[in-house]
Every structure is written in structure tokens, then in C-alpha cells.
Write a structure and sequence with these properties.
CATH architecture: Sandwich
Number of domains: 1
Structural class: mainly beta
Distance between the termini: 78 Å
Shape: elongated
CATH class: Mainly Beta
Number of strands: 7
CATH superfamily: Immunoglobulins
């Protein structure tokens, strides 16, 4: 009986934990699409949702690099999710011939922890 319990314990240890799950959300900000003089399409992917669920997610953008949730000129919160996913949004009313910086983000629902994708830049057309 003791041997059986020990074997069950070992099996639980080996298969009971999901070691493939990331601890924190992992994001990838993709290159922008459909650049116009006043609009652009932003794309990103939540590659791993991490153990924080649900997470708030969206985009940050502005005319200065080094974006974070506190210094970004604009923030677009797209809601919450529990899963990996790709997401995109069309920004309008941008200034022509201007360089913008964009970054995706994911956050704990109360924004106590914030995780960022890579930052990219683009210039709107004249």
C-alpha cells in the first residue's frame, strides 16, 4: 500500500504541474501595417498569458521612445483575456509626417504588474 501511494505521488509530481506555462505574460509587437498620412494598423500577439489571469492588454503610443504605461501619450486598453491571442487595431487622427513609437502591453487587472512587448517605430506619410 505504501509503495502504491509513493508511485502515485511520483506520478502527480511528474505530470501534475504544467511546466510549459510562462510565469508572466510574453508579448510581441509586430510591424505596423497600412501606414497612411493619418492612420495605421497596429498588430501584436500575446505569445504566453502567464499565470496572471485575466490580463488587461492593449497598445501604448506616442512621439517619444521608451514607452511605458506612465509616460505614453496614448493608451488603448482592449479589455481582458485568459489566453494567447493576436490582436490589432486601426489608429486614426495621427499627425502626417510624424514618427511614432508603439508598444503592446499586458497587465494585472489592477495594473499592479505591467508587462511590455518590444517597442517599434514608424512614420506617417505626408
Amino acid at each position: 500500500m505504501l509503495r502504491r501511494l509513493f508511485i502515485l505521488f511520483i506520478i502527480q509530481l511528474a505530470f501534475g504541474c504544467d511546466t510549459d506555462e510562462a510565469e508572466f505574460p510574453e508579448l510581441l509587437t509586430s510591424d505596423v501595417q497600412q501606414i497612411g498620412s493619418t492612420s495605421v494598423v497596429l498588430e501584436a500577439e500575446i505569445k504566453e498569458s502567464g499565470s496572471i489571469r485575466p490580463i488587461q492588454y492593449g497598445f501604448l503610443w506616442g512621439t517619444q521612445g521608451g514607452l511605458n504605461i506612465f509616460n505614453a501619450l496614448e493608451k488603448l486598453d482592449l479589455g481582458s483575456t485568459d489566453a494567447k491571442k493576436k490582436f490589432s487595431v486601426k489608429l486614426e487622427n495621427l499627425t502626417p509626417a510624424t514618427t511614432y513609437f508603439v508598444r503592446s502591453y499586458a497587465a494585472h487587472p489592477d495594473y499592479s504588474q505591467i508587462f511590455y512587448g518590444n517597442e517599434i517605430s514608424f512614420s506617417t506619410l505626408n
